[in-house]
Amino acid sequence: MKAIIINGGYSVNSRLTGVQLEIEKLLNENDVSYEKIIVHQLPAQDLITANFTSHIIIENIKRVEKADIIILLTPVFKGAYSGILKTFLDLLPQKALENKSVIPVAIGGSIAHLLSLEYALKPVVSILGATHITNPVYIVDKQVTKDDDVFIVENEVIKRLETVLKQAFVLDAIRA
């Protein structure tokens, strides 16, 4: 079983990175190998112009295609997931997420944006062939803090992340 974390955040210093680190810890505890794509570190010109011939883009698409579990991390602004994540998802082939478990994880300023994952992100991943989409994990900013360069994620959030990862592990085992 192999997972890939696709981080659609704008900064490696954001709370989203704290969530990513917790997910990595949980994957390690369950002996799941994983890779990560930090989308904002990919060549911006290739993302914006949808450069399908870019070697870096091709390499990252292949990494997604090889994974069994896709973990999508995004901040939510103005009721939608990040444009950075969207630029990468737009480069994936039509059925790139077919037969994969997809775990949507988002962080936003208030619970009011919870449904943005259902109404904005879920249709896009469905078009990419995803049929095994776990319940999304929506995290409110105040549930992730940073103290002396160390992220602290509330236990309730960690438990929800554990639950969706276990759902994905079971789905992956059933498909195998």
UniProtKB/TrEMBL annotation:
PANTHER family: FMN REDUCTASE (NADPH) (PTHR43408). It comes from Ureibacillus massiliensis 4400831 = CIP 108448 = CCUG 49529. It comes from the Bacteria. Coiled coil: none annotated. NCBIfam families: FMN_reduc_SsuE. GO terms for biological process: alkanesulfonate catabolic process. One of its GO terms (molecular function) is FMN reductase [NAD(P)H] activity. Keywords: Flavoprotein, FMN, Oxidoreductase. This is FMN reductase. Residues 1-143 form the NADPH-dependent FMN reductase-like domain. It holds the Pfam family FMN_red.
